[in-house]
DNA sequence: GTAACTGTGTGGCGTGCGTT
DNA sequence: AACGCACGCCACACAGTTAC
């Protein structure tokens, strides 16, 4: 049987990055934390923390921390559904996978509509965020996967609309005769990371062929917009982020009539269902207000 | 039979000091 | 400065003993 006093020490060290801060967090001395970690490592038979600044969890340590988080969520969920149990005043931390563009546009307003929850967000591409749920590393995800992950409920959120945008100067230099295949092969394109396929998909839709333009790698939603504004390249930007720039002509759409709508889904673990009720409402509400309705819902 | 008391073992913690 | 180790203290659980 796992000793949760020891595990909570492990989780505190990993969360705070040091034995000292973990001790403050647990209201004990650093020595007590050190002894708990040592005992846990002896019992498990493996090193759980790489001592340093900051202290980091080993792979096994990480797995144990995730287990502690899940147990905490289950307990909080149980307390909510059994009114007889004493209420725990500590806020619950929810680990959620979300794509960067959702975070930069509509997800924070959803988070702000909840009360008494703490968030631990994991950033990943919308095509890969569901993998975090499958691995049990998050309790919910914003994903492009519409098929429910095992043990999860799935809600359609609508679509995040992307517009292929660039600065007027960039368009004048690289597309003087309009947007065509030959120019698209030469014009530098902005790409978020190696998982980002939006540009490829949109180019295929726009030109009917696969094109590999020269790439700038920019793993930040805001830097993506800034780079487009600076004339560094063209990129698929969320309409919500560039609406004002398009209106003021600081950015222009490469082909105004061809947005790319990426359908998004909210998948959340059923096992901590009661705990997520507030967040579910907030997410669906924010999505309804801020995202583009999917064709089936429109 | 039961309650109260006592002795012992164990676990957890803090202090002080050494090590890196 | 941060962490680990040795040591001692304290609280608690449990078993054995005694008194009623």
Automatic annotation (TrEMBL):
Keywords for the protein's UniProt record, in alphabetical order: DNA-binding, Transcription, Transcription regulation
Record-linked InterPro entries: ArgP, LTTR, LysR_HTH_N, LysR_subst-bd, WH-like_DNA-bd_sf, WH_DNA-bd_sf
SUPFAM superfamilies to which the protein is assigned, alphabetical: Periplasmic binding protein-like II, Winged helix' DNA-binding domain
Superkingdom to which the source organism belongs: Bacteria
Pfam families for this protein: HTH_1, LysR_substrate
HTH lysR-type domain: residues covered: 2-58
PROSITE patterns the record matches: HTH_LYSR (PS50931)
Cell division as UniProt keyword: no
Claim: Lipid metabolism is one of the keywords in the record: no
Gene3D superfamilies: 3.40.190.290, Winged helix-like DNA-binding domain superfamily/Winged helix DNA-binding domain
Molecular function in Gene Ontology: DNA binding; DNA-binding transcription factor activity
Family: Belongs to the LysR transcriptional regulatory family.
Protein name per Swiss-Prot or TrEMBL: Transcriptional regulator ArgP
Source organism (scientific name): Microvirga ossetica
């Amino acid at each position: 049987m796992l000793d949760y006093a020891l595990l909570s020490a492990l989780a505190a060290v990993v969360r705070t990055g040091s034995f000292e801060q973990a001790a403050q967090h647990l209201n004990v001395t650093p020595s007590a934390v050190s002894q708990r970690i040592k005992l846990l490592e002896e019992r498990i038979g493996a090193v759980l923390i790489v001592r340093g600044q900051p202290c980091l969890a080993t792979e096994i340590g990480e797995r144990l921390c995730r287990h502690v988080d899940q147990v905490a969520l289950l307990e909080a969920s149980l307390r909510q559904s059994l009114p007889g149990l004493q209420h725990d005043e500590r806020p619950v931390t929810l680990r959620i996978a979300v794509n960067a563009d959702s975070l930069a546009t509509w997800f924070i307003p959803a988070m702000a509509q909840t009360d008494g929850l703490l968030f631990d967000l994991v950033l990943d591409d919308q095509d890969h965020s569901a993998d975090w749920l499958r691995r049990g590393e998050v309790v919910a995800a914003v994903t492009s996967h519409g098929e429910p992950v095992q043990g999860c409920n799935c809600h359609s959120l609508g679509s995040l609309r992307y517009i292929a945008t660039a600065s007027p100067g960039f368009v004048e230099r690289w597309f003087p005769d309009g947007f065509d295949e030959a120019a698209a092969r030469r014009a530098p394109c902005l790409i978020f990371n190696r998982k980002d396929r939006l540009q490829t998909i949109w180019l295929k839709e726009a030109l009917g062929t696969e094109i590999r333009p020269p790439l700038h790698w920019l793993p930040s939603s805001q830097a993506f917009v800034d780079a487009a504004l600076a004339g560094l390249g063209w990129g698929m930007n969320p309409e919500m982020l560039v609406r004002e720039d398009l209106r003021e002509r600081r950015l222009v759409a490469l082909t105004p009539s061809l947005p790319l709508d990426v359908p998004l889904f909210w998948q959340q673990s059923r096992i901590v269902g009661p705990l997520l009720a507030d967040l579910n409402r907030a997410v669906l509400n924010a999505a309804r207000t801020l995202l583009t309705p999917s064709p089936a819902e429109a």
